[in-house]
Amino acid sequence: MKASNPNSPLLKITLLLTSTLTVMAGATIAPSLPEMQNHFASEENVAFLVRLILTMPALFIVIGAPIVGVMVDKFGRKPVLAGAALLYGLAGTSGFILNSLGSILVGRAFLGLAVAGIMTSVITLIADYYPGQARANFMGLQAAFMGFGGVAFLSLGGYLADQNWRSPFLIYLFSLILLPFIWKALFEPSRQTKNPSTKEDDPSDKLPIKNVLLIYGIALISQVVFYLIPVQLPFYLKTLANATASQSGLAIAFCTLFSACASFLYGKLKARFSFLSIAILDFILLGCGYCIIGMVPNYPLVLLGLGISGMGLGLLMPNLNVWISSITTDILRGRALGGLTSFFFLGQFLSPIIAQPITKIVVGLAMVYESAGLLLLGLSVVLFIFGKQLVQKPPTKPVKVNS
Q1: Rg (CA), the chain
Q2: Domains in the chain with CATH codes
């Protein structure tokens, strides 16, 4: 009895729902952070450690993804996914019962390893199940599902945080609900081993280093700045408008909603503009949004800034993914995209480490958001003036003579 139909509605919905686990890993508990900080107020460096709880999974995604990639090929996609989903549920909900910031951080580290397993195995399964255009279509659907799933989970996290700061950790139980469907609805794809005689080692296949470093740099800077929203926004809104945890959750979800909507427009924009032009637009949108967040006096106008910056974020990641895919050959593309993922999550992890001392220097989160906005606008000007020099032409492939 072989469930081996990739077009099965149950299989598709299982893949899509499992994909949402990756977006709820970090920011779902963001609305809890102020109350968590109050609860652990007696612990040393509490402000820094509480913010680190949000971004700790990102560090372990960076560490775990390459290891998981080997496991997925050695032990199979489905077993790794099922094991990662189980670990995700246990590690994610551990914060509901643990009684020290140190132990919660350990749980968040294991959560990061679980997310690395889920991300790698789900993407690999999609690539195995769907060829060509069907794969591109499903990946687009997956990105939209993740965006709108983020809105739902963030809103729920804010509501639960109003009841108790521990309650949002229970949302991670969703992976245990999905576990039977992962085991029943998904199938292990048959994998052909490559014929060693088909190995082609073309010496002209080189990474365009300048382009790759530019893309990695954009990913790192944008994520350090973007993660000021889930990490710092609840504290900022509490100071600015005495916002509740649910209002903070809705504000972050508002940004995620605009991000998901903007992603749908990427294909149309790319048909008319270059990768570099869209990167400049990303920085302009993010920069304007952050300046608005830092300068306005009330909650509704902060939402305006969040919507604008969300649009920049929604265009950013598809642009970087497609950009790096287009400038690398098949042999090097996986490594280049793996590096992009590492820089993406490294930026998220570094965000509170960089932002916390800056907050003390510039006095207050409003100035942090304004400074971040001005930095991004400045970088958009740098890219506009010097972008052509920074972007090297892709490596020319050897012309094959028809025989």
Answers
A1: 21
A2: 1-188 (1.20.1250.20), 206-392 (1.20.1250.20)
